[in-house]
Amino acid sequence: MNLWEIFVAFVLGLVEGLTEFAPVSSTGHMIIVDDTLLHSTSLFSPQVANTFKVVIQLGSILAAVIIFKDRFLNMFGLKKLPSANGNPRERLRLSQVLVGLIPAGVLGVLFNNYIDEYLFSVHTVLIGLVAGALLMIAADWFRPARPKVVSVDQITHKQALIIGLFQCIALWPGFSRSGSTISGGVLLGLNHRAASDFTFIMAVPIMAGASFLSLLKNWQYITIDALPFFVVGFISAFLFAWLAIRFFLRLINRIKLVPFALYRIVLAAVIFFWVL
Fold first, then answer.
1. Among 139, 168, 150, 167, which Cα is nearest to 261's?
2. How many CB atoms lie within 10 A of CB 60?
3. Residue 76, CA distances (Å) to 95, 166, 174 in order
4. For residue 92, is pLDDT > 80?
5. Taking Cα atoms as reference points, which of 181, 148, 149 lies closest to residue 22?
6. pLDDT for res 42
7. Contact at 8 Å (CB) between 3 and 232?
8. Are 99 and 156 in contact (CB under 8 A)?
9. Mind giving me the DSSP string for 199-266?
10. How far apart are CA 218 and CA 166, in angstroms?
11. Which of 75-79, 140-144, 179-183 comes out lowest in average pLDDT?
12. Domain positions in the chain
């Protein structure tokens, strides 16, 4: 593997890490870098490319697991955390996360083949980018003046289910899981930080499950020759996802969703003129 391929793996991991959990659509960004970088490597084949994307996504997932490790340990009864607001009943539980996962999990299983065959194209991603941006703008405009929920520990099972229904929209490529679920949470009366925390926690099991299943099917494409390419991409995605999540969570209550929505519209324009 030459230096150019190491650079390509690093950049692809960077793009994955910075965009996977932000409400900007990692799919939209990967279309651009795929077109400009991934095809330039001697390792490129559709199978290797798809496997590489799974591996770097696992790097991003690992970053989220580490950032929220105390909450995951608490949900599985392995670590005790102080009760929110002094109320022992206010604590995010595994049951709320599972309730939020059910809608998209069921629809994903039922329509996975249809989505892969008919919805993964540049045109559908452009639609998802713009439609998702409009949803995010609407969420900021029509959110309650004073959020009722200021901590992820205050989320009810009903709110978790409705946020899970919003996550179903993200089955359309380009819509963004984070963008749809944070928007849904904000419209329900969560502040932006609480909606983001729940979104990222809920994303870990559904992304990890899908990634591991895909990796099992494509394990044979991680060859000795390609292994450094995968390792560099994984480490790059992990580091930049860790930085992106930490940075995003510190800022989201101040900047809200509209700046990300405007960025998505600009990204859609870039893809339209660059790729099409």
1. 139
2. 29
3. 10, 26, 32
4. yes
5. 181
6. 61
7. no
8. no
9. HHHHHHHHHHHHHHHHHHHTGGG--TTTHHHHHHHHHHHHHHHHHHHHHHHHHHHHH-SHHHHHHHHH
10. 30
11. 75-79
12. 3-274
